[in-house]
Amino acid sequence: MAPLRCLFVLALLLLVELPGDAIAGRGHHGPAAHDYRDALAKSILFFEGQRSGKLPPSQRQTWRRDSGLSDGASAKASVDLVGGYHDAGDNVKFGFPMAFSMTMLAWSVVEFGGLMKSELQHAREAVRWGADYLLKATAHPDTIYVGDATKDHACWERPEDMDTPRTVYKVDPGTPGSDVAAETAAALAAASLVFRKSDPAYASRLLARAKRVFEFADKHRGSYSTGLAADVCPYYCSYSGYQDELLWGAAWLHRATKSPAYLSYIQVNGQVLGADESDNTFGWDNKHAGARILIAKSFLVQRLGSLHEYKGHADTFICSMVPGTPTDQTQYTRGGLLFKLSDSNMQYVTSSAFLLLTYAKYLAFAKQTVSCGGGGGALVTPQRLRAIARKQVDYLLGSNPMGMSYMVGYGARYPRRIHHRASSLPSVAAHPGRIGCSQGFTALYAGGANPNVLVGAVVGGPDMQDKFPDQRNDHEHSEPATYINAPLVGALAYLAHSYGQL
């Protein structure tokens, strides 16, 4: 290849991977509504409060201690399942939502890590902590291990005191789980991109495992909610089925490998796997919208014309969230918060804000807009999408009728009684003696503030009337979760950069 052509190709590749507004340019009018940089640091710090396993010397949420050091020992194969994250306010490491959290945290770094500056290393460490666990959970071929919630929910105790049976369940060829398997493959593939330059050997290991796990997911099709219904429902049932995860997993493997095999898989199976275009919910269970955005990137940025229909699919999803357009289908509270479900609604707020900002990045690169409502519909620019996303993040951080930040430790007023075992009970340092399974329930129903501040935790959020009671036993509104924070990391990195805070 001629030297000048080499330079051109290199420049194009660099441009394709440029983060955030390094492509579109900064440009916001007026001062920032919030300290997005502070919120970014705290949103990543939250993950350290969710850690399970042997904590490292660098642990910054210092009121936490080692926990779950024998996880996996109860499995017949006696697999090492030490590590990973507690999914939410309990002590379960469920697998399915953890894998989605890691996919979204990795995607945050892949798209906006170049903007994170000093927080990039912390974000990478958060991804690695989860990816290491997913490697353990997939160590045996054609097998993925998941946790048990039923017995855990019978107690209210610190992770450090756990004495409930840490029962391990698995999906395998006899009990398929394409949903959890394909999501795990997506997480491993996305994580491989995070470490592709900083730790190529680790990235290669992650990608090799992602390929193997996806092959298992596709070959042995079925939902883990079928074979393990008594154990995973109603906590993390796969209500949307497994088709969305297969498309999502293939999309991530295509992005990580650029292999024609995964492109062909998407082309051949995409229509069947991504069938319901009217489904505009994106979260730990339903990946349709995220897959559309991710695949549309290949058309917009890499110019893969065979995927042109996904630009239309992605536009349909985006238009459903733009107020005032003919195709607007999204409900907002009077205070302006996107509202999907009363249970943990903030997860849809953060995931939607992330998709809006990410799609705006792709559109800006391709110098395209979105037409909402056909030929005579409204033309929606990347700037409009960013404004919608920013409004959601601002609401979350305190620009709302209650004047409350829904991120613990950010701002003057934030939730003090979150639904979280470790936060609600005295730390080991403050109370070295063991607190038994049923003893902890006193704290669940107590009225005082949690003794440990889980900095960075984003709770489920207010109700449809913009009200938030801040009650510990109200898990729908007061429980934090890794899948709420993960996409918010990327959104905050973009906003902090765009307002010159990074």
UniProtKB/TrEMBL annotation:
Location of region: Disordered: 51-72
A UniProt-annotated Pfam family: Glyco_hydro_9
InterPro entries tied to this protein: 6-hairpin_glycosidase_sf, 6hp_glycosidase-like_sf, Glyco_hydro_9, Glyco_hydro_9_His_AS
Key words of the record: Carbohydrate metabolism, Cellulose degradation, Glycosidase, Hydrolase, Polysaccharide degradation, Signal
Active-site residues per Swiss-Prot or TrEMBL entry: H419
Position of the signal peptide: 1-24
The keyword Methyltransferase is assigned to this record: no
Enzyme class (EC, first level): hydrolase
Single GO MF annotation: cellulase activity
Catalytic reaction annotation: Endohydrolysis of (1->4)-beta-D-glucosidic linkages in cellulose, lichenin and cereal beta-D-glucans
Cross-referenced Gene3D superfamilies: 1.50.10.10
Residues of the Glycoside hydrolase family domain: 36-492
EC number, UniProt record: 3.2.1.4
GO terms, biological process: cellulose catabolic process
Highest taxon of the lineage: Eukaryota
Family: Belongs to the glycosyl hydrolase 9 (cellulase E) family.
Protein name: Endoglucanase
